[in-house]
Amino acid sequence: MKQALTLIFCLFVLSNIAPGQDLKEKYKKADEFGKFFGDKYYKEIVQIEAIDSTHYFWYRTNTPSGKSFTLIDADKKEKRPAFDHAKLTEALNPYLDQPVEDGKLPFSSIEFSKNLQEISFSIKDVDYVCDLNNYHILKKEKRRDFRNRRNYWGNVFQEEGKDPVKSPDGKKEAYIVEGNLWIKDIETGKIKALSNDGSPYEYYASSIYWSPDSKKIACCKYRPAGVRKLYLIESSPKDQLQPKLSDTDYVKPGDALPVRRPVVFDVENNKQYPVNIPEVESQFSLGDIQWNDASSQFSFSFNKRGHQEYFIYAVDASSGKLTTIVHEQSPTFIYYNAIWQEYLKESNELLWISERDGWRHLYLYDYATGKVKKQLTKGEWVLKSVVKVDEKNKSLIFKACGMDKNEDPYLEKFYTLQINTGKITALTPENGNHQVTFSKDYAYMVDRYSRVDLPPVSVLRSTSDGKVIIELEKADISEVTAAGWQMPEVFSAKGRDGKTDIWGVIIRPADFDPQKKYPVIEYIYAGPHDSHVPKSFAVTHRCSGLSELGFITVMIDGMGTANRSKAFHDVCWKNLKDAGFPDRIAWMKAAAAQYPEIDIERVGIYGGSAGGQSSTGALLFHPDFYKVAVSACGCHDNRMDKIWWNEQWMGYPIDKHYEECSNICNAQKLQGKLMLILGELDNNVDPSSTLQLVDALIKNNKEFEFVMLPGAGHTLGDTYGERKRRDFFVKHLLGQDPPEWNR
Fold first, then answer.
1. Which residues are CB-neighbours of 567 under 8 A, at least 6 positions away?
2. Pairing mode, if any, of strands 172-177 and 468-474?
3. What is the arrangement of strands in the sheet containing 172-177, beginning at the earlier edge strand?
4. 659 CB neighbour count, 10 Å cutoff
5. Are residues 447 and 434 in contact, defined by beta-carbon separation less than 8 angstroms?
């Protein structure tokens, strides 16, 4: 009887301890995922650079024996080691505290001299130069560390600078004193004021633009606006006991903005011509002032607040008369950060990208009349960017996606376009996402292409026709797959309308068992400024480690994100709470129908920033599908966040849509399990956004968890936050108790 009781007790102990030990082992695998599998991944070009104005490139790969640097001679159609790795290792050892193992060079980047006889590299902020003729090494002084100098993105430039701006002929300089524009003759020292109507409250800006002939100046009269401050408290500074208070500029939706009014100054005749812009007070921004070569006119951009109208204006320098060159308008929004133009001087034409026909395409304008001469590209695909314009040969290189049907429409490829004939030539036709490095003269290109489910292939091509000159590398994943790594799956399914293809990625754990059922966790980032699902191959993706705990993780681009049609993008307009959820849910249901191992009765979601807003929104607006969410540094009310991002998608003036999309105003709808993570020093998204959501949830008597990270900025949570996120999903989706970390 005693032996039986002992056996029962042992079985009881094992049944309670073993699962915890197994779970802790899974946490360890999640932590080590990137290194464990990444150290077995070889022959991908991880860094490449064109060498000055030559037709040489150098690139670095990882091999089983360490880092390998290779030199490409495009003219000779050959590649060779960039240097003798063994000789460099031997020469370098006397300069280092610890000897370098064979192949384990302690630097990742090099720089060739113009004659290719020397290379430079850095180790621990110390610069070295190696003569490749004799492998003599010169050690230079330790570099100064500028890493702690921050240039905060939100700073408001009040245009009060007083540094003089020299004229192109070098004879004069212009500057601002007490809000007025002054000229100084450098040779004689004589000065004179060109304006006298400036004041501390409305002054001439420090951005001064001389005409090429040095006879005229374009300058803006600037009326500043009050600048809202974001105040942050650092509770636990490293250098003192008491907390610190800091503030940064932080303009929010609806705030007043400065007004710029261009003025033309005739320097020689001491005349000025104000430029009368329609609705000048309604500007969001005015800038990009550029003179023509003849000094007869200059152009500038005018982004009307609300982002539904965008202008390119030209100004006659002898009168200040305004002419409209481009007037872009949209009933929803113009994505102004994606605006692109290039002036063709020889033909007096303008290249302009627009979505006016429902897709992002290229147009040719007659600059003199402001009329469209022709649409240069057309079709149900997206021209993402123009890489290089060759005005002499009337051709250009551009990057596009979606041109090849029956492929993932987000894959980026490169093309040439003949402006006169409209002929398009594919430079990178393979079914993959192409990342290209051009020689400085654009004669050659190194093309690295891959997909999430296709390891990288690298080739050298001719840019004239895209023909492959030599094959460079094929990535080797044999050891990765032998170790149990699961290839992510690219999956597409119809969206909310039953017609549009929605694309995403499925990631399974290394010990995946198709006979089991797995909860699903979606990583979401639905910012309308881009598409966000990875398209290139990688051994480790953002949610790979999380999958190792026993989840299937997914990433999806739903409607409302960019790089598809204008209609696809417009879903976000004044509707950020949508976040593509109807498409995401339809996609996951289709995936579950095809793969029984996907359990859509247990669905979690997480994200940060805009993804923090969306992941909480999943529980508020779609509680029937999403059951658990972890939201970090979220913008939970778009009125609380930075102006330039939120007015772009939510519009101006502030209206009811801001409140309708607010997680704070909808906190009473919370169902499911929610964890909020916040860095106290977040200067990207106002921390009060999360704290106001906490307040609203408390007022509505809702249950949730809140993790505040002292000293942290805009973050998903760093190491501690990642552990808390894992614990939360393990508890509420797997139904297991997380490890007892305090033991």
1. 358
2. unpaired
3. 165-166, 172-177, 180-185, 191-193
4. 14
5. yes
Cis preceding-peptide flag for 94 (omega within 30 of 0): no
Burial of 336 (0-12, 13-18, 19+ CB in 10 A): middle
- Has residue 14 got a pLDDT over 50? no
Query: How much of the chain, in percent, has pLDDT values that exceed 70?
Result: 96
Instruction: Check the CA dihedral 608-614-616-619 and report its sign.
Output: negative
pLDDT at 215 over 70: yes
- Distance in angstroms (rounded) separating the CA atoms of residues 397 and 413: 11
d(CA 732, CA 480): 31
Q: What is the mean pLDDT of residues 88-96?
A: 93
Half-sphere exposure of 292 (CA within 13 A, CB side): 21
Q: Would you give the end-to-end CA distance of the chain in angstroms? A: 34
What's the mean pLDDT when you consider all of the chain? 94
The first and second tokens of residue 714, run together, are 């805009």
Tokens of 273: 């011509």
Q: What's this model's pTM, rounded to 2 decimal places? A: 0.94
Per-residue pLDDT at 3: 52
Q: Are 298 and 290 in contact (CB under 8 A)?
A: yes
Closest CA to 488 of 433, 449, 432, 537: 537
- For CA atoms 24, 26, 27, 32, the dihedral sign is positive
154 or 741: which leads in pLDDT: 741
Judge whether residue 162 has pLDDT over 90.
Answer: no
Look at the alpha carbons of 313, 314, 317, 320 in this order and tell me if their dihedral is positive or negative: negative
Alpha carbons 646 and 652: distance in angstroms, whole number: 9
